[in-house]
Design goal:
Structural class: alpha/beta
Strand order of the largest sheet: 2-1-3-4-5
Number of strands: 5
Strand content: 15-25%
Helix content: 55-70%
Distance between the termini: 49 Å
Largest sheet: 5 strands, parallel
Radius of gyration: 24 Å
Amino acid sequence: MNREQKRLRVLIVSSSEKAEHLLRDLLPSASFSPIGSVSSIGEAKRTILRSPVDVLIINAPLKDEFGTQFAIQAADTHNIGVLMLVRSEFFGPVSEKAGRFGVLVLSKPVNRVLASQAVGLLAAMRRKVGALEKEASSLQRKMEEIRLVNRAKLVLMEHLNMSEAQAHRYIEKSAMDSCTKRSEVAETIIRTYEN
């Protein structure tokens, strides 16, 4: 299984054990594992704080609250893929409100094929978001390294009267000679001359 096909962690929130078992059946273990389940929003919040979740399935309403606000918060704040199942009379308002935040909403009773397709779509979206998050994190690290190296160059130019080209060459050569990253060399330079 390559990195792109890693299994997604799922949390099912359902007051009904029967519905929870039906939802589990839609989640092939080759794509989803572990699959946890809780029966209330309070338990779900604690679970998400303890361990990361990629996909959240909410069978509304729940014991302690309906679940719309929690679905929105999970999708928006925690970047979790969320599928919410609601009775048909609530579908319009919930879909309108939660859909703006990327929550998929299906009307109950749910057709098994449609639910399976929704879960597949949610998984594909979550994998895509995960790849974008990874790429953004990598770019952030590169930008931080560039800032650090530029700051170290300024320090060398100020304290050792080097030109920018000389400072750049010094950092590059020091990194190669010591088999370390340019950012580590830059941090050492900054600590040495700014303290």
